[in-house]
Structures are given as structure tokens and as C-alpha cells.
């Protein structure tokens, strides 16, 4: 069996490629954007990745072509597949039919925190000796890979609401049929495919409809959008998490969220870990509740999370030069930006935080978050905004709202030179983008070393 994956370097499709290879299938792939960490993982798995989308990549014809959701009509490889009548399928459908069928699927969904919560849940199960399979849209540091088949029926999957493929406009997660479902939160995002929050809620309700009555839905106590979605109809028990007044609660022992007590029906346990922020405490509650559903005790889950390292590109310390720390974070939505900065500020209130932001997501490029973006940087001491030529709207209004603490640059090189010149010992440089940002992290570290 030979499958060829179009869009193989996306986090989801790359993980799928690794799972297929683990099943003994010959896997090749094409992509226009090849960069770490996924390119490294694919190479290590022995998967040949071809640059671009050329017809010859599909010659001789594979047994099946798996389409990533970035593929569109007009793409040369897509048109070749259709014209030649080659068999093809979406990534989520292939996963459902070849990996998830017959397994206890534990799906983590929501606008924010999916990758981190999925990683926590997989690690809790691993720590408990349950050897789960998983497919996560990032690289959990405790595993060093984003996907594996696992040795038991349990499979943890990051359940993305983005659409499935150009020929299947349902959200990807509709294919997964989870028995345990986490809905972390729900906000408007992905404006390129959803008209409004209501459209997102309808897709989430499709997901809720697939959870069996003997399963479990886990969600926050007071999220109106989630409550409205569940009110459309839910046939599954619900457990909620919150600071108080819920089945699962957490009491902070430190303001930055690096230590807290989790409680559930008389069971209590403390967690001391390296993660920061209330959002990560909430992620932990969701992961612990999900693990509890398959038999992991609160105490054992707390022990696991105390040994949880984190996820690449989620407030990941990329390096430190002369006392200047450079962090990488995937935040690209105003809520995620604000919570990431708040967690870092609570941990080090005396430290100067310079937030360096690339508005790169499709929703950002459309200007959907213009009204709330400036407020997301409230706790940053300095803000650097990257005005990419492809952005399509000016960041000047955001800069004006932020005042003197914000500056706009139109080149990565100018940003690197500026922060290297103006940063001092003890400062934090927080780089936020959902892409590679032209390798800015290593460029900043290299320039700091030169200085």
C-alpha cells in the first residue's frame, strides 16, 4: 500500500503520515512549506517529502491520495488527481477509518488550548502506564513527537474545528466519534470559513451529537457560547470545571499558576509545574477530568502534570543570551495573546516584556480582530508589530491605541536589530506567531550573541 499526502507538512497531516508509516504503509508527501519541527519528524520517520505540488510527484500513481485541507481547486496536484481519476480521501476520514475505528477516542476541542490540553492528557495516560495513541497539533516535550499509534484502545486527538477538505466542508472533528470530549472554550475564529460564532456553534453541536450517552462531555462552567451549543441538545453526561462551583475546581497557590490544588468530589491533589497562567490551570483541569473518565485518579494525574514539561512553541524558551530570554509562542488570537502575556507577567512582574507579534493567521489577515487586538497587549511593556506586505490592512490604528510603547516594522531584519540594540539584562522577548516568522528566534539570539 502506498499513500501520497498532499500538504504533508501541516501539523495534522504530518502526524497522520507518521501514523500511516507506523502501520507499515509506504508514505510519500508533497508540500509548499517545509520547515521544522514537522520536517524533522517526517525525515526521522523515513517519509520522503517533495517540494511543491507537481504532477510527477504522483507518477507512478499511488494507491491513495490523502488531501490536506489546505489543498484547493486549481492546485496542480489536485487537478491531476481529479483528471486522472486517482482515488482520494480527506485526512480526517482516512484517520477515522484506519486508526480511530474501534478505539476509545478522547477528543480535545475548543478555540484555545487544544494542543496543550491534548498533550497533558496524553502524558497523564502515559504516566499511568496506559500507553495511549495520540495525534496532536504540536510536539509535546514529554514525547518528542506529535503522533503515535499507542499500545492500548485509548487515543487522544486534538479535535480541530477547521474544515475537512475542499470537498468536505464539515469540521474535521465530526469524523472522530469521541467517547470522551473536552470543549475547552469557544470564540469566533477562522473567519475565512465561518461567517459568525453561530456557524462555529453548529459544527460543535454536530460533534456533540456524535458522543455516546455512556460517554462524557467536559467543559468550563460559565462559557455562554458552549452553554448555548449544549442547549441545542446533548445526550451525554456533562462535567464542568472552574475556579469554584463546579465538579472540577482549582485553587491557585501562586498568582502565576505555577502551583495549585485541584479538587473533585472530596479528592484533592497539588500540582507544582513549569507552566504559567490561569489558562494552563484550566487546561489541566480539563485534562485531569478526561483522564479520570478512563480511570486515572486525581492524585496520579497531579503527579503526572508535575512532571509535564510542556509543548514546543507554547511559551517555549528558545534561548537566553546575556540575561535576555527569548520565548516562542503560537498565540495568534487576542485571547491567547492576552493570557500568554498575563501568565508571563504574573510569574515575573518586575521583568520588562517585549511582545513581538506577526499577524499571520487567515483571520488576522482579514482584519477580523482589529477592535480587540490592541487590548490583548495591555500587560506588555513594549510591543513590536510586524507589518507584512501581505497583511492587507494597516497596523497603524493598533499602534495608535497602544501609544508610545508600540512600534511597527516592515522587515524581520529591522525587528532583530531593534530588539538586539534596545534589550537589556533581565528582559523577556516574547515572539508570537502561528508560523515560522522567517526564523526570527534564531536571528535574534544570534544578534544578541554578537552584541
Automatic annotation (TrEMBL):
InterPro entries: Mpl (IPR005757), Mur-like_cat_sf (IPR036565), Mur_ligase_C (IPR004101), Mur_ligase_C_dom_sf (IPR036615), Mur_ligase_cen (IPR013221), Mur_ligase_N (IPR000713), MurCDEF_pg_biosynth (IPR050061). It holds the Pfam family Mur_ligase_M. Keywords: ATP-binding, Cell cycle, Cell division, Cell shape, Cell wall biogenesis/degradation, Ligase, Magnesium, Nucleotide-binding, Peptidoglycan synthesis. It is an enzyme of class 6 (ligase). It catalyses: UDP-N-acetyl-alpha-D-muramate + L-alanyl-gamma-D-glutamyl-meso-2,6-diaminopimelate + ATP = UDP-N-acetyl-alpha-D-muramoyl-L-alanyl-gamma-D-glutamyl-meso-2,6-diaminopimelate + ADP + phosphate + H(+). Residues 2-99 form the Mur ligase N-terminal catalytic domain. The keyword Manganese does not apply. Its cofactor is Mg(2+). One of its GO terms (molecular function) is ATP binding. Residues 108-291 form the Mur ligase central domain. One of its GO terms (biological process) is cell wall organization. Residues 313-435 form the Mur ligase C-terminal domain. ATP binds at residues 110-116. It comes from the Bacteria. Pathway: Cell wall biogenesis; peptidoglycan recycling. The keyword Hydrolase does not apply. Reutilizes the intact tripeptide L-alanyl-gamma-D-glutamyl-meso-diaminopimelate by linking it to UDP-N-acetylmuramate. Belongs to the MurCDEF family. Mpl subfamily. This is UDP-N-acetylmuramate--L-alanyl-gamma-D-glutamyl-meso-2,6-diaminoheptandioate ligase. The lineage of its organism: Bacteria, Pseudomonadati, Pseudomonadota, Gammaproteobacteria, Thiotrichales.
